[in-house]
Amino acid sequence: MTSAAAERVPASSVRRMLVPLALAQFICSFAGSNMNVMINDISQDLHTDVQGVQVCITLFLLVMAALMIPCGKLTDRYGRKRLFQLGLLVYGVGAIISAASPGIGVLILGNSIFEGVGTALLIPPVYILTTLLFHDIKSRAKAFGLISGMGGIGAAAGPLIGGLITTGISWRAAFVFQAIVIVIIVLLGRSLIDPLPPDPTRPFDIVGAVLSAVGLVVLVGGILAADQNVVLMLVLIVIGAVILAGFFAWIRYRERAGKEALLSTGLFRNRTSNLALVTQNVQWQVLLGTSLVVSVYLQTVRHYNAIQTGVIFTAATVGILLSSLAAGPLARRFQQRTLILAGFVVTIIGIIVLLIQVKGHPGAWYFAPGLFLIGTGVGVMLTPSVNVVQSAFPENLQGEISGLSRSVSNLGSSIGTAVAGTILVAGLADANRSYGIAMVVLAFVGLLGLGAAVLLPKSEPQPVTDAPRPRAEQPT
């Protein structure tokens, strides 16, 4: 079915298709943050420490980031619906393995590997299908508002829901909850329509896939090694950067040889898309980094249990929920650039308020104003950032740009947790000071995102129709 045929699908059917797609984004984002409130419970039950659980969390996000680009590309070859269903299956198996984990190694296998691979398989189809089914900026903004909003809510509500389940039953039950949601998505997703037919003859760049994945893993691994050995950190970061440089040289070589590469180098020539990708990365760095910092601080310094920690994050959840519900009306009244700028300003103010309010105040609710502002700010800009990126490219490049977009976002999540976690682990002897340093670093990252948003063009982006694949030889 082509996009023209998709336009003949009843609007009510298209809207129903959004439900499983939005739920899928919710559960994957939930998985990225709900373990933050289980740190003490998992550490005691599996005889590990804070760093062991942090590694598990970061590896989950890193596996997603490393595999998003290859998996996005595979949607062209095997079909978006088929990859979506396969991802749900792999994720569900991972959730069951995690629930039964006898030790941290098996938990890493189930959560970090299986759930990470499953998420990488199913998330690119979510954004590709949404782009193909909704054709104008306003309706697409509304659809992305629902999906991105559910992603933000999943990330923000993860600590609350995870805390309730952990305190009421067990941390293992939180993974059972994930498996149940996956079953619901499988049932709801049977009616999904793939607007574009798969092309089994489409070549797949294996060398490019390996180079991109290994480069990202080594790069973030270097950040994780910062608290252990500074020299090792620098070596890994340099090696990761060299591998990624090799990846770009490889895809350029393939394009010049007339072969299809894992990514079109032309994707990186779109200035608007590049800037919006930076804002996506920063948004998830700040959201997931804040979630980890506050969770660790509450559990290790103030000795709150899982449910107490989760309840405090309700403020961020409410902020994201309200701003996500307003995504459609906001898109009709304001330009995408304006919303992204406003989101960063509110988020940075939220971090400042969080630091000022918490310092010297023992009460838990002093966290609420800052977390609410951070949630509101992130919720305001999630949708327009995604919409700007996806709308900048034609249908025949949606598999690639969706994989790149999701990879950049999840790389932001993994870097945010890695950087914040490294600062916290290195400074546990003076947790109050390390908490403050971590939040200041996240505020600085937010300023970088604000700078990228300022550089976005003031004109409203227009959706692009089918066009030839970008080639390395084409002028910018």
Question: How do you describe this structure in short?
Answer:
This protein is mainly α. It has helices spanning 3-6, 11-33, 39-45, 50-78, 80-99, 104-133, 137-168, 171-188, 206-224, 230-256, 271-300, 306-312, 314-325, 327-333, 336-358, 368-390, 398-426, 431-454.
Tell me what you see in this structure:
It is built from 18 helices and no strands. With 476 residues, the chain is mostly helical.
SS field, number of helical segments:
18
What characterizes the major β-sheet? Answer: none
Termini Cα gap: 32 Å
Question: Which shape, going by the Cα principal axes?
Answer: globular
Structural class given helices, strands, pairing?
Answer: mainly alpha
Q: List low-pLDDT spans.
A: 1-6, 463-476
